[in-house]
């Protein structure tokens, strides 16, 4: 099969299409013919070598953590998925024509989603659910601030926070104001025109996927006993006890929220937001776009 791999850390041009063996499956797994996969910032962070001290990779390496496709083989112990089903979920090594997946992290694609839309959903929506519900314990009528509401995580987070009945403020750049409105945000801050330090200081929960000064400024916007969940760093965690405010640095999806997230997707409470769809051969262009840090929704590769 064809797979996109890299044999050395570096820029997007280290990604190469190679012939490799089709993966084998173990107990609890299925083999999926890949129809689409999503691109996430972790992909180019891993590819560049920027985080190799924390997450060293065996090279050559095939990236890719979310996928959709058609089931080709099923391990004997898997009962809820059969050959021929259209499925989606989180996995590893999705930049390929075939991928093995854990059946318990895989779901049938709701009939109204195409493969590209389905592949765009698992990562951002499960991360957003974990951050808001599992870590942030979001509650009805709370005031929630979602930084970077236009990103892969942010677009899902706005919809999930609205599902839980929160009042949602989000930060975006000018071109994404309309998108944030469509997703249901109650208040939209153009972060380039308005400093977040001018916002009312009464948030119950803040989701930070930006870090740096944005994270530092967020402390002051939280109520006493409020919670700051960061996806990017714990650089200002030391402020937490003194301010009597809670801090979580979330690394990866917590638990396996895909069943509950799949219910929200099936009920159209979380809808896909796709910025751009690329061909398999255009992987370098997709990485270069993701590295700009200004994707509106998700980038997806179709095969
Ligand atoms: N720890 C974890 O478990 C975990 C999981 C997933 C993601 N992450 C991390 O979280 C970050 C976001 O991920 P993602 O998938 O959402 O990225 P993404 O899809 O690339 O989106 C990034 C978004 O950030 C917005 N943005 C950039 N600078 C901003 C600022 N100063 N204020 C507000 N918005 C800003 C951009 O929107 P505009 O064009 O409107 O500026 C863009 O839509 C990445 O660093 C990723 O690695 C961590």
From TrEMBL:
PROSITE patterns per UniProt: QOR_ZETA_CRYSTAL
Example GO molecular function: zinc ion binding
UniProt cross-references to SUPFAM superfamilies, sorted A to Z: GroES-like, NAD(P)-binding Rossmann-fold domains
SMART domains according to UniProt: PKS_ER
CDD domains from the UniProt entry: MDR_like_2
Keywords carried by this UniProt record: Oxidoreductase
Segments forming domain Enoyl reductase (ER): 10-301
Pfam families the UniProt entry points to: ADH_N (PF08240), ADH_zinc_N_2 (PF13602)
Signal peptide boundaries: none
Keyword Oxidoreductase recorded: yes
Domain of life of the source: Bacteria
Protein name as it appears in the record: Zinc-binding dehydrogenase
Organism for this UniProt entry: Acinetobacter faecalis
